[in-house]
């Protein structure tokens, strides 16, 4: 009995640790882009995971993600098109909208793909 309870507790705890953050998923600048693929256009969705952001011709693995004022602050080491750079994003999710705000204050809004 104890081992069953311990196993159930371990499964509940590990399941909670694996729960997706609200920013995780497939996001597009316009809803119509959700069905596009890189084989047909560069207007494709980005994929945001706990590990980073993958986009058309660029990849930004996160080096850290922290919570701040109800948002997520992600630091990333990016690469694409033969270049590398560091980036800090503030990720805010409201309903089905993800807003990425960059260090310079500019921002981009995305809609969540189904």
Please outline what is shown here:
The chain has 114 residues and is mainly beta. 14% of the residues lie in helices and 49% in strands.
Mind explaining what this structure looks like?
This protein has one domain (21-112): Lipocalin (Beta Barrel). It has one helix and eight strands. It has one helix at residues 2-17; strands at 25-28, 46-48, 52-55, 58-68, 71-80, 83-94, 97-102, 107-112. Strands 1-2-3-4-5-6-7-8 form an eight-stranded antiparallel β-barrel. The radius of gyration is 17 Å and the shape is globular.
Give the topology, please.
Layout: H1 2-17, E1 25-28, E2 46-48, E3 52-55, E4 58-68, E5 71-80, E6 83-94, E7 97-102, E8 107-112
Give structural attributes.
114 residues; mainly beta; Lipocalin; 8-stranded antiparallel β-barrel; 1 helix; 8 strands; 14% helix; disordered N terminus
Assembly state of the chains shown:
single chain
Shape: globular
Q: What gyration radius follows from the Cα positions, in whole Å?
A: 17 Å
Which CATH class? Answer: Mainly Beta
Judged by helices, strands and strand pairing, the structural class is mainly beta
The description of the largest β-sheet is: 8 strands, antiparallel, barrel
Give the strand tally.
8
Task: Indicate the low-confidence ranges by residue numbers.
Answer: 1-16
- Give the total of domains: 1
Which second-level CATH architecture applies? Beta Barrel
- Report the β-strand fraction as a percent range: over 45%
What fold name goes in the CATH topology slot? Answer: Lipocalin
**How large is the count of helical segments?**
1
Order of helices and strands: HEEEEEEEE
The side-by-side strand order for the widest beta sheet comes to: 1-2-3-4-5-6-7-8
Secondary structure: helix percent: 10-25%
Distance between the termini: 42 Å
Mean pLDDT: 87
């Amino acid at each position: 009995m104890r081992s069953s309870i311990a196993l159930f507790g371990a499964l509940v705890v590990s399941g909670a640790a694996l729960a997706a953050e609200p920013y995780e998923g497939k996001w597009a600048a316009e809803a119509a882009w959700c069905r596009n693929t890189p084989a047909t256009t560069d207007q494709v969705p980005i994929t945001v995971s706990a590990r980073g952001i993958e986009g058309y011709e660029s990849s930004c693995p996160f080096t850290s993600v922290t919570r701040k004022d109800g948002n997520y602050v992600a630091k990333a080491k990016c690469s694409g098109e033969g270049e590398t750079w560091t980036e800090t994003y503030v990720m805010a999710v409201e309903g089905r909208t993800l807003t990425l705000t960059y260090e310079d204050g500019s921002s981009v809004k995305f809609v969540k793909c189904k």
